[in-house]
Structure to design on (611 residues):
């Protein structure tokens, strides 16, 4: 299996705090990974580095064989935990924007998903509720045919209906050649979607294993394993 | 479909498919959903389904035609075997459960007959 | 780049419209004054023209331009608004360049209006000419103001950029940025002085006391050449600083 991401000795400090402590990690193409860990474990930092929002770090990172740069941004789709769209745009304008800057953007898929999410062309981003913003962000991100998807807490603070729509969209967007890295506290929502788990705590990787293997070996659910792994972390 | 959390999903889906064959919901030589469609329907990772299909094919329960898709086995024998396997599993579970409760084989058969005649009520 | 400009301008649509409206109003005002609508009562004319059609609007324009520049250059850094820009495959240099070009649009609006207003102060209703300055003088004034302000904009931008890049997690990052700002300013100032002395020395050298003519361009001695040389240096500095900020964004970003 090919690796889409190879990370060696990645170190990121924020002042005197170690956000990521010399971590090593590889991610395979076509797999869906769950990035799990308590707050401040370094999950968002890791995703931001892969997405290109943080370019100041030490260590080696390869995304599809390339160092994170302007080039890798065209094959990496990032869904941030905070809203990052231009607030003055309408839904239609956000689609145009993504189409203008991302070659792998599928406009038809985006429009279909927007309809599914009950988003109207003329809705202004600024005026959308939190749930609707979450739907818009995900619709745009997954309409891209990227090689690596980075989803940072897609289910944070949203209503049930939105949650169900987001889950369904993620499930329907699985692509054979794409790798997905989903950072979430709400493991139960995507439990059956995750193939492998990466447990991160205080900048260290505690465990990385296939879900099925973990279940066969331990007879536990993901939530139970999480509690066990982080009992002392 | 509701999954158990502590058992690998693919095993549960294999069981699920066998159940549907046993009940006749999946008919002999019938075309199965594609990996993609099945993954969407059950809301699981498509690699899990791919693995499931691989195992089912290895066991001869399904077969695939390149470019067309996957199909339930054409062998009547295989389908009977699946059904028998299931019945055996159900019966052995029943027998073991009653043995744990202290019933002898003879008593078991008596209780079973009573139940089938409608003589045992719940509660 | 064009696409970027499209979005930058769309993003500041309201400000742009405001600029266009102001332009229209002040041009009309200038015409009105030139046409001597307010009569020839000197005292009335002078005060009205200077304060209301000169000074106050100019202050308003400065605020307008400063605000537009801040919004264009910094909005994606200050809040999470529009941070999707940083995930698009655009180099830092292109990113900063597109912003500067957008600021240029506002700069031209602001400086042209300001020149018209200055004329209100200089000659309220006395002349029947719309422009007091000659076209070349007008253009060179604009050029000077643009290059001058852009150098300063970039110095401020680079200093501020430190708080979002290399110094992002340093305790006193704002003070550090300020120190960098002062340093860059002093360096630039010294450099400008040295350049001036150099150009002065060269142009006043007896050997170079001639007139150069190429088509419509006529340069007396080398003084004017020195002036244009100054602009060239400014532009090189601006491009260099844009490049530097691009590198900071590409290699040292810490959002």
């Amino acid at each position: 299996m090919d690796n889409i991401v190879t990370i060696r000795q990645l170190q990121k400090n924020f002042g005197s705090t170690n956000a990521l402590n010399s971590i090593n990690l590889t991610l395979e193409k076509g797999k869906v990974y769950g990035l799990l860990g308590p707050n401040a474990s370094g999950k968002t930092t890791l995703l931001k580095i892969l997405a290109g929002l943080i370019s100041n770090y030490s260590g080696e990172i390869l995304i599809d064989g390339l160092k994170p740069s302007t080039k890798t941004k065209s094959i990496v789709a990032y869904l941030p935990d905070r809203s990052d769209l231009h607030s003055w745009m309408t839904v239609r304008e956000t689609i145009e924007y993504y189409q203008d800057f991302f070659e792998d953007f599928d406009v038809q898929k985006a429009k279909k998903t927007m309809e599914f999410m009950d988003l109207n062309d003329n809705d202004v981003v600024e005026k959308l509720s939190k749930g609707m913003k979450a739907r818009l962000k995900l619709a745009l991100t997954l309409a891209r045919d990227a090689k690596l998807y980075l989803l940072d807490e897609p289910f944070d603070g949203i209503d049930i209906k939105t949650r169900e729509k987001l889950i369904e969209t993620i499930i329907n967007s699985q692509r054979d050649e794409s790798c997905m890295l989903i950072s979430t506290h709400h493991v139960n929502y995507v439990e059956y979607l995750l193939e492998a788990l990466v447990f991160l705590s205080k900048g260290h990787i505690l465990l990385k294993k296939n879900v099925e293997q973990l279940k066969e070996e331990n007879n536990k659910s993901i939530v139970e394993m999480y509690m066990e792994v982080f009992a002392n972390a | 479909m509701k999954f158990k959390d502590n058992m690998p999903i693919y095993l549960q889906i294999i069981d699920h498919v066998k159940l549907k064959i046993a009940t006749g919901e999946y008919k002999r030589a019938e075309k199965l959903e594609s990996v993609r469609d099945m993954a969407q329907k059950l809301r699981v990772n498509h690699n899990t389904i791919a693995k499931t299909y691989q195992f089912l094919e290895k066991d001869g329960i399904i077969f695939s035609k390149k470019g067309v898709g996957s199909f339930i086995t054409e062998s009547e024998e295989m389908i009977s075997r699946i059904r028998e396997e299931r019945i055996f599993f159900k019966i052995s579970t029943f027998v073991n459960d009653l043995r744990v409760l202290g019933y002898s084989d003879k008593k078991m058969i008596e209780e079973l007959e009573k139940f089938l005649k409608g003589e045992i009520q719940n509660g | 780049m064009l696409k970027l400009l499209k979005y930058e301008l769309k993003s500041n649509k309201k400000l742009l419209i405001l600029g266009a409206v102001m332009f229209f109003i002040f041009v009309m005002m200038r015409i009105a004054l030139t046409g001597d609508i307010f009569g020839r009562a000197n005292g009335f004319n002078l005060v009205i023209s200077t304060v209301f059609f000169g000074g106050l609007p100019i202050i308003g324009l400065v605020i307008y331009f400063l605000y537009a520049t801040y919004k264009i250059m910094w909005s994606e850094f200050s809040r999470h608004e529009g941070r999707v820009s940083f995930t698009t495959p655009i180099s830092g240099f292109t990113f900063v360049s597109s912003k500067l070009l957008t600021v240029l649009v506002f700069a031209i609006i602001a400086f042209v209006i300001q020149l018209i207003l200055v004329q209100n102060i200089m000659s309220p209703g006395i002349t029947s000419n719309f422009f007091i300055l000659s076209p070349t003088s007008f253009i060179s004034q604009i050029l000077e103001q643009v290059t001058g302000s852009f150098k300063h904009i970039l110095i401020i931008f680079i200093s501020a950029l430190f708080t979002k890049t290399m110094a992002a997690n340093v305790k006193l990052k704002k003070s550090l940025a300020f120190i960098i700002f002062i340093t860059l300013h002093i360096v630039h100032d010294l450099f400008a002085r040295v350049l001036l002395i150099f150009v002065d020395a060269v142009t006043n050298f007896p050997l170079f006391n001639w007139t150069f003519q190429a088509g419509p361009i006529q340069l007396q001695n080398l003084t004017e050449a020195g002036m244009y040389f100054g602009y060239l240096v400014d532009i090189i500095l601006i491009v260099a600083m844009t490049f530097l900020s691009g590198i900071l964004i590409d290699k040292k970003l810490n959002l």
In short: The mean pLDDT of chain C is 80. Chain C touches chain A at residues 3, 7, 10-11, 13, 80-84, 86-91, 165-166, 168-171, 249-255 (CB under 8 Å). The CA atoms of residues 37 and 134 of chain C lie 24 Å apart. The first strand of chain C starts at residue 211 and ends at 214.
